Protein 1
Amino acid sequence: MTVYHVLGQTVSTTRWICCLSLLLIYVAVVKSTGYLSDMYNLANDEYEYTDLYTNAAYKSTVNNLMEEAAKYFDYIADPDVPEDTSKSESWDDAGGIVPWVDEETKLRDDITVKYSYSDAPNIVFALVDDWGWNDIGYQSTYLSFTTPHIDALAAEGIKLSNYYSAFLCTPARASLLTGRYPLRNSMYREELKGELPLDEYTIAEEMQSAGYRTYMVGKWHIGYSSVSRTPTYRGFDYFYGYYNGFIDYYNKTYGGYLDLTENTDLVTDATELDSTYHSAILFQTKAEKILESHSESYASQPFFLYYSLQLMHQVWAADQIYIDRCKYEGSDSDLDTYCGMSLMLDEVIGNLTCALDRYGFSDNTILIVASDNGGTSVIKGSNYPHLGAKGSTHRGGVSVPAFIHSKLIPQSRRGGTYDDLVHVTDWLPSLMHVATNGEWTGSFGGSSVAIDGINVWDAIMDDEASPRTSIIHLMDTTSNYSLLVDSYVLNYNCIKINEHDVPTCTYDTDQNPSNSFLSCDIVSLVDFSDTDAISDDFFGTIAAVNSNYRAVFVIAVIICFIGPLLFFGFVKFKELHAIKRQKSG
């Protein structure tokens, strides 16, 4: 019995030792492959883990940060939450998602043209949804081959390497449209179901004051309980898109209800509602038609186009032709889909550029491409090398891709990078500065409406120090806030937002890391001779990884299962041989 007990322990121990060896082999394979180590090593930024909150040497700095935060405590607003008792009944009656609160509907009567600038540029703001730091080709470790046209535009423009947005969709949009921190209108928490208050002015209304015609395509997501809260009553002359945080890319539904509106009416066109028609292509087509119509009917008037893309948000989907371009032997289906979506994103941005050129706008248009917040996960939205993701105030949730492209950028700055601080709230004052040739004097609301955004346009164009030195990432109560000042981030209280975040009070030092269906020929912008090489290298790397995985699996079977049995048999043989010798002796 003792022999068999020892043998049992030997087998068990051997299995553990062998499996531990297998784990070490697995780690070695992953670490030796740049693709996977870059994909999964999200904690690479060691400074994100440095907790200095209780470090006496930083007491003064911490106190200064807390004093900076306290300046905003008096401005924390309660959410503007509408009644929703009749919401589903209204949707059932209408056959889709519509405003449900019955209240007086009227346009603002104070939106008048106050500024006139004969050379006012057209402005296109393309807001990509849930686009992680590691998702844009020119700085991606895994999707580098998917965005050649976006990369080309960025390479001829100015990349913003230190750009911050909000950590979620709604606060990002509220910040962009108002130039104000969401603490002032309680738009930080989507679960509170607050809406952008009616006394808030938007960048579209400000643009109208400068004589601009304003358009919006895509995602709204800041409230639609009443008609007065919808885009065409908040400064946009035309709207085509959806009200909620996302819709099915093919069915155009949210929660089982159609969510696709043109101006204030549900879309009924059978072609547009075709369940095989991907919404990214639909919205691209609408954006191009807007440009065509504007060139025909409003050629003498500048335009502002807010192109609020659905890509790259869940529920992830791409046309099969794009997914097939991403497949390889043993590939991951989720990554294939996300990769296909990235190809589609590059195509729609490329075609937008084509349309600007086709209708004569390219010489006098400013194109801004930016993400609303960090990517959502590891494969479907990577924020490497930053800690955190969408929903987190760590860098991975708020530091996102952004760049400016325009022929109006000074020649000396084209192809450059701006490394100083820029925040999503800065776009309103910066773009109004450009739209009015520096004449803009502030919001319609006057001094009672504080603009948290800072005009950083000249600093970016001249590559000078940013006038911005701090950012409020989150502040929904006086005991729960996150802010950045210079290179330091204070996360005070830090309630757990999702599984990516760290639910502790931390004080972090945050450092910088440093074949399409196009409607025009913009090959001159991109050296496609490298595209296939990048793609082959990518696929070759992944194929090598999978080959290594298969080899490791075979070793696992041999070592962890067959090996111990062979060892057991050998020991048993030795035991029987010893007994036989004893008997023979």
Note: The chain has two domains: 2-44+540-584, 68-105+120-512.
Protein 2
Amino acid sequence: MRKVILVFASLMFFSCIEKSVAQCSDLKHIKNLCDESYSVMSPNSEHSIPLIALSSSQYGDRGSSVSGTYVNAILKAGGLPVIIPLMTDAKTVRILLENVDGLIMTGGEDIRPHLYNEYPIEQIGAVDSIRDVYDLMLIQLASNRNMPILGICRGEQLMNVAFGGSLYQDIPTQHPSSVKHLQSAPKSSGTHSIDVLSSSLLSNIIGRDSQIVVNSFHHQSVKGLASGFKVGAYASDGIVESIETTDGRPMLAVQWHPEAMVDGGDTIMGKIFQYLITQAGYYRKARSIHQRILSVDTHCDTPLWFRRSNFNMGKRDTNQINIPKMKEGYLDAIFFAAFISQGNRDVESSEKAVSAVTNLINGIYKQVNMNTEVCGISRTAKEAQLLKEDGKKAIFIGIENGYGIGKDLKNLSLFKSMGVTYMTLCHTKNNDICDTSNRKIEKEWGGLSPFGSQVVKEMNRLGILIDISHASDSTFWDVIHTSKQPVVATHSATRTLCNHDRNLSDLQLKALADKGGVIQVCPFASYINVSKDKATFNQYIDHIEHAIKIAGIDHVGIGSDFDGGAGIARINGANDMINITIALLQRGYNEDDIEKIWGKNFFRVLDQVQAAYDSQRSNRIKSSKIQKAHQLSY
């Protein structure tokens, strides 16, 4: 068997030049081969080739190794293979994975049973504890980033274990059958048939849902299926031969060795690698786009987590928004909402609301000050861009629920001085400013209150964005008619696709666009599907597309409402944001479109609203200087 050896665990790329050692024996010929490598393809096409990481096994004390059949299968499918050296340094593994576009978990030793809470039986084969740790780190880190993954043989078993499944430690002992799962025939030869399920991803990839013949070199296999996975194929004895995700993430695993069959000329098995390369290509293109654009999520409720002891947004945690997850999902900027639920509206309660919002904003600054090496406060698009160029995430501040300004317009100036750039006028109940969208609440003002009209005008004057998410229809129309500046819906969806009071009708979408504003589409399950348990990622993308169809490509963006109840499969945290870009690419959107959706549209509005304030302020200063000059002249 051909082996590619990594001495001293160094990282290596592989060439597809098929020449014998004898032909390359002199230095001149080797130099010519190197020179000819530049004439194979254009630089642009080279940059688009996906890099596919290969997990490796230990090769004694000499380094890490991978069978050459994996390398050749990747090359034939149009990718570039890269070996990830076997190690247990998670940081190094993470950094390596940040530079590739797909992952293949290769075959090898048995897996330690304690990883799936079992004791080893006598028939278990050789295990490698170090490789188990290394492989499970690879799977976890790659899946965190939504990277396409293909598991092969041991790789399938590991993927199942990594997400909570269990294994047969020895098929002959624990699941006796007439099928020979450890064949003696050459690896390139198929020896037993499997049934591919018609509804499976595997069926879609290979273009058939009938039986196919595969090779077999294992005595362990999937027993208890991991949560979030489904079976794609079975052997005739019931052994699981393929698993895939239930939510459509590009994670596929097979129990046989398709790379060896590709090496033997099997074109059907080649389609499995072509699928991986295609998915990795989308992933690579999405990563590339995010390196050039400025992306922003315009609403999350993460500051509510800041009240928890020892919480640090600079560390990866179970909540949906933190700096590591933003890095994994290629999200550049986030709006933290200082959210206050609606309380009593007497003077004392209103003053307490102002104090509560002030404390939340101070909490945001505290978290940023704890993590100045990786993030910073931003008030403008320009500041956010500068932070990105410095390798940091931009943290914007908004207020959710105008109840937080109490009964005094001067508090708007106070909060602007603290860095607030937008305010959501209300939440799920009426307040002193306006009526809520909540259909269960009787409307009080019929739209904006007299105080609310003053609030809108003062926000215009101060250059604070007006957010109409949560506002009633009548409030929406009053704001459209009262505001002299564009307004935004920072976390809503479309009512035509889901009749929810938090969503905007087509008429509202058109009016919002005519005003120059934007709707930031939110993946809140009950806003996406009236039966929230049936909400899907593809339906969320449908809402984005519907908003584009009605309002136009210049008036749509992304606002998650993460850490506030939002999230559906495949878009359930900042690390999943890359999936939106991939889906848009797959639906035919180009980089200019994606740049607009991911922030250019929203920042255009922010710039316009802030520029109006800056212009007024400049005029006031100029007028004051003129008046002072006139006074001095007398």
Note: Confidence is low (pLDDT under 50) at residues 1-20.
Protein 3
Amino acid sequence: MSSLGNFVWDIADQLRGVYRPHQYGSVILPMTILRRLDCQLAGTRNEVRALAAINDNPNVLAARIRQQYGLGFYNTSEYDLERLKSDPDGLRANLLDYISRFSSNIDVFERFKFENEIATLAEKNRLLLVVRQFAEIDLHPGTVPNAEMGDLFEELIRKFAEASNEEAGEHFTPRDAIRLIVDLLFAGDDDGLMAPGVVRSVYDPTAGTGGMLSVAEEHLVGTTDTPGLNPGARLRLYGQELNDQSYAICKSDMIAKGQDASNIRLGDTLADDLFAGREFDYCMSNPPYGVDWKASEDAVKAERAATGRNGRFGAGLPKIGDGQMLFLTHLASKMRTARDGGGRAGIVLNGSPLFNGAAESGESEIRRHLLENDLVDAIVALPTSMFYNTGISTYIWILDNTKPSERGQGAAHRRIILLHQDAQEPRRQVARDQRDRPRPQRADLRRPRRPGPRGRRPQPGLCDHRLRLLDHHRRTPPPAELRVQHGANRGDGGAGRSIQGPAEQPGPGNPAGSAGSTRGR
């Protein structure tokens, strides 16, 4: 993948002088999408043109193409990249014709304003050079599987982010972190997931380029070369994304997978939930850290006033400077209800949601809501430097509205599982080791599950040798506020923390020296 990413990146050298490095993505990304679609259509191009000649109704044409060739999109133009490069004089007009003849669900080029880039490239005599080089790349799914294609997009985005001094973490989540979230969410649902023809739903309200959705499908269904847990399963993918270019990449990727393109929607999740009233089996998200929600403020407050405690934001509103906890409560509201089998959610956050906010603040009230409703299942501290261009501490929160029966019932038996980096190991070395951790070792983090309405069965839970496991046996109802105790006086260098209620005292089932994680900056 690195060589393919470097090859595509080298094409950007043709743009020097015409574009600044941080602008390369406006050409390279849509051209990569175009080449991917071009390769997928190669084997059926003539047949599709023949069908288009006798079917004027685009809906009928789309249905027939899907039925006969398994494609979720089509193009009726007489051109492809190979033919385009053979007519340099007509290249601009012919390329515009090509991208305009895609089926209506391919709206990705509009989001990149690609027609403007084509005009600029043609004017600066770069269009033919770029088209020729992309035509040499084989991006057919048989050569570059969907998972590798997602990695290619991630690598390109990382390079563009570095060129523009942006935080790459604003755009996507590293694949290894996603795989850990998926492992944790799916853990223990083996019987249900292995049933013939099983259908599950996954939702990401900050879909980005679709990395989380793709890895979830890879885990369950798998690929041609690497089958997942159940190749006969169907995982329905849903996502909402605010950024036009990320939305375009995500949607094109979902179309290429044969997913329903209408399930990927463009919009501000906080201001306008485009899946209002829908619940999902699994929810995942990596919202932006430390980004204010001023643009959504009026809509969020109006929705909270209208829906009250039962709405997405009924528990409380955090400070305007950081909207992470709004996404946390949003995910909690999107999990399938317990009476329908229950749902689980995983979200990547920095340290702020754990520690910020005094008693009775919006942040405190959100934590109170999650604890009193016994929704927090686990908190996993990720190694530092896992995210590109940043060394902040990050945490995976796992939510579950139907916790395992072996963990007890009622407030007196509530537990939260904490996983954290071992305090004695060098943090940077752990970060590197964690990035390279093979999938079977990530699976060791799975803990015992429950039998449930979807056929879940308990399975042995192990703790990875670099992580320390702690079960908090709650012997009193969950507190109104969390108290964070630093570990400086426990001889562990201050690396550990415990989360416990102010009314609780250390005891056999609730040690004050419980370990947590380093605080996010």
Note: The chain has 20 helices and eleven strands.
